[in-house]
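Hi C.,

You asked whether I'd gotten around to modeling the 164-residue construct. I have! Everything is below, sequence then structure, no commentary in between.
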Amino acid sequence: MKKLICIALIFASSSLFPQSIENSHNIIYAELLGNGLFSSLNYEREVSNNVSLRFGLGFAFSNSLSNSGSHHTTAFFPIAMCNYTFDVYGNNFIEVGGGLLISSTNFEITNDKYPQSQSVAVPTTAIGYRYSPKDGGIFFSAAFDMFIMTGIYPWAGLGIGYRF
């Protein structure tokens, strides 16, 4: 009987004094332009208080004309980044991040009719603003990005998604 009363008291006290709300650690969002070139779909996981890892799939397309006609090319690019956020106020943060965009390019070797593929890791950075409620909800970001190849190429992106 004493065990039953103790269990009942523990249960009652935990329901009267609930523990703090657990923070959400996952974000899924779409980004227009940004680190995925024209657009990307991303998953971000917060691994510590202000550090998160981002994995995404970027999308780009191009149209070109040649003697044989019009050519349409689409490409998908894996993205991996590490971000650090600085608390500004409430759900507002400054984001600083760096990572890699993996680009696969096709080129033709002389006297070979089969195109070869070459993967290139392009360093990319981001600095921007994000609205991200710690307990979950709508996520928004706006960032200034740079790709570092033979030079530095500035870019920008807008993201919207959901934190859970």
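If it helps when you're writing up: The first strand starts at residue 26 and ends at 33.

Thanks,
B.
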